[in-house]
Write a structure and sequence with these properties.
The chain is an alpha+beta fold. It is built from ten helices and 38 strands.
Length: about 650
């Protein structure tokens, strides 16, 4: 859903901002009315009829009456489609039963219909595959009452003294305000949205405003037309006493041509001035993303915003519905025009295609436009969010997708933050920015105007780069958790010895094969980075390094999701409160552990084999411990001892 309300967190402050003013340079971290939904929302929990799959929608035409101070709606919707099955004798669509249907005209004939909860069935003369469907549904009424999420909001702005009504349909709610087919894979080829309202209002929607037609009773009709494929939940309207603030972007790839950016802002003194700086940034963002992702997908029509009282934004195609113009939210919603609108997730299980890449668009705006420390702050914030819990996958199993569990789709930690982080990790794995952005362009080109799964992106990634990302997606997309590192290093005779021991936050993914950056800080004040591949749970690397190393840092730029549990310089180990000596090493049937610190404290001992499997785990208080290793197989083992605060890791060999 993208977001009805978002939480923005600035690391300098623990304040969370939910109000009209949305902080610049904050990160979009969760769906906007999250708490509101969980406490108040009652979904229409009805099953969709399989009969909606009998036809392929080609065109929607919404010709409806709306106002800025009520959710009441009336008018008619035209559905043009083509029969997809061999024989079709029932035309089915979706509309909540709170809305009254006056009549259904099907292929020129007024027909009877039946309703079963939110499904509407129209018996028709048999049609065969390839036949055209021309259906007109006339309806009116109030959607579900405003104490439940209805699909149509109406609120009053106390700041700007304006009433405003707007729609939100993602993921399952278009049927709450217009007759439709809610199937992601069936994008309409085009859509008209005609909005009749009081003459003092403006009404915004998809595509280009082709006419403003005077109507009876001091009404006007805003006639919006879009000729790009569009999914059902991206169709919308917003109506208020707006002013039109229009600006233009000029991406380099259009060779001097402009893209219209049309903004409907409350027509109240001071409102435009308050938001102008944030709105104007859209030009920079659109030009940046056109360079990184390929030409703005809907450049022949427009991009724009309708200001409402929502706490965040919703990426309605070509005209985002938004509650303010903070840096992050404007970038995020615009990023959706490529990821979510041009290329839409094929199933709600693959919401990463929408939210992961839109959230990363927010990061890229921080990297290329905000600059300074902001990219680092943004990524630290994202990592802290993801690492706050041990499990959770980006991919959502289909059995978890339901109206009652819809917030799993829009989990801010997983779909948004972790989704963005693994895009960043793919970029790191490639170690080639030009190649990375070429992948994004190829993906947009291959799935333009269509839908895609996470595995579709993987296929493009592999074809463009020539690299196998199967392990990566198994770990990071379908898997759960993150790696935890304990590092032991030493330098002797110009040889740098580093042992990287990796455990994970959940047993579901026991190993993350990954590239890792280690930054070496030398005694002369200089530094360098080395990049090592973690291939098993315990990796040992020996590298010639001439300069004397003072200290090391793991992943200093936050490229990859991980936690570092400990970094131990073996020469300084003796100062560690849990310092111990192993003997004999190699061992046969027994190994002795001797602690040099006299204090008898509780110590937790864990022994792992080279694959990371735990072979022994026990608590001890004694100063000296004798462990029976006769049952251990021959090989290398890692022993980890902690007192709950301090950690020490050593290796031993069983002969």
């Amino acid at each position: 859903m993208k977001k009805l309300i978002y939480v923005y967190i600035i690391l300098f402050s623990s304040t969370q901002i939910f109000s009209q003013k949305i902080n610049d340079y904050g990160m979009v971290t969760t769906c906007s009315y999250n708490n509101y939904f969980q406490n108040n929302y009652k979904f229409q929990s009805t099953e969709q009829s399989d009969l909606v799959h009998c036809y392929d929608v080609k065109f929607y035409f919404l010709d409806i009456n709306v106002e800025n101070n009520t959710t009441y709606i009336s008018g008619n919707v035209t559905i043009n489609a083509i029969v997809q099955v061999e024989v079709m004798d029932t035309f089915a669509f979706e509309l909540v039963d709170e809305l009254t249907i006056d009549s259904v005209v099907f292929n020129g004939n007024s027909l009877s219909f039946t309703r079963s909860e939110d499904n509407v069935f129209v018996p028709v003369l048999q049609l065969v595959q390839g036949d055209f469907i021309f259906a007109n549904i006339y309806y009116y009424g109030l959607p579900p009452p405003p104490n439940e999420f209805s699909g149509v909001f109406t609120e009053s702005s106390t700041v700007w003294d304006k009433n405003v009504t707007w729609t939100v349909s993602e993921p399952f709610n278009a049927k709450l305000w217009w007759p439709c087919k809610q199937v992601l894979s069936d994008k309409a080829d085009s859509v008209y949205v005609f909005l009749t309202t009081s003459a003092n209002n403006k009404a915004g929607s998809q595509g280009l405003l082709t006419a403003i037609t005077p109507m009876q009773d001091n009404k006007v009709r805003y006639e919006w037309k879009s000729f790009y494929p569009i999914d059902y939940y991206l169709i919308s309207f917003s109506v208020s006493e707006y002013q039109d603030y229009t600006i233009y972007a000029k991406p380099e790839d259009l060779n001097g041509d402009s893209i219209l950016i049309q903004n409907y802002i409350y027509d109240t003194p001071g409102c435009l001035e308050n938001y102008k700086t944030g709105i104007d940034r859209t030009i920079e963002f659109l030009e940046l993303f056109s360079d990184l992702y390929g030409t703005y997908p809907f450049y022949k029509e427009k991009y724009g915003h309708c200001l409402t009282e929502m706490g965040g934004g919703m990426e309605h195609q070509t005209m985002t519905t938004i509650g303010g113009f903070g840096f992050g939210i404007v970038a995020h919603e615009l990023g959706h025009m490529w990821f979510g609108d041009n290329v839409t997730c094929a199933t709600w299980s693959d919401i990463w295609i929408n939210e992961g890449f839109a959230t990363y668009s927010d990061y890229l705006a921080h990297e290329f436009i905000a600059g300074g420390e902001w990219p680092k702050i943004w990524m630290e914030q994202a990592h802290n969010n993801v690492l706050s819990q041990p499990g959770g996958s980006i991919y959502i199993p289909p059995e978890l997708i339901s109206p009652e569990n819809f917030m799993r789709i829009f989990d801010g930690r997983l779909s948004y933050a972790k989704g963005a982080c693994i895009v960043h990790m793919i970029r790191f794995e490639l170690q080639d920015n030009d190649l990375f952005f070429q992948v994004l362009k190829d993906f947009q080109e291959q799935f333009c105007d269509s839908i895609a799964t996470g595995l579709d992106f993987k296929s493009v990634l592999e074809n463009t780069t020539g690299m196998d990302f199967t392990y990566f997606f198994d770990q990071w997309y379908f898997g759960e958790g993150y790696p935890i590192y304990d590092i032991v290093w030493n330098q002797t005779d110009s040889m740098f010895d580093l042992t990287s021991y990796q455990t994970t936050s959940t047993a579901i993914t026991p190993l993350f094969k990954m590239l890792m950056e280690y930054k070496l800080y030398f005694n002369d004040g200089t530094d360098t980075s080395i990049f090592l591949n973690q291939t098993i749970n315990v990796n040992n690397y020996i590298i010639p390094i001439e300069k004397a190393i003072d200290s090391i840092a793991v992943d200093p730029e936050n490229w990859v999701l991980n936690k570092v549990n400990s970094i131990t310089h073996s020469i300084e180990e003796i100062d560690n409160p849990v310092y111990f000596i192993l003997a004999p090493n190699p061992c046969t049937d027994q190994i002795n552990i001797c602690f040099t610190k006299i204090k008898k404290i509780k110590r937790h001992i864990t022994i792992f084999d080279i694959s990371g499997k735990i072979v022994l785990e026990k608590d001890f208080r004694a100063k000296n411990i004798n462990l029976n290793t006769s049952s251990f197989k021959k090989g290398i083992y890692v022993i980890k001892i902690t007192d709950g605060k301090n950690v020490m890791i050593k290796k031993f060999v069983k002969n």
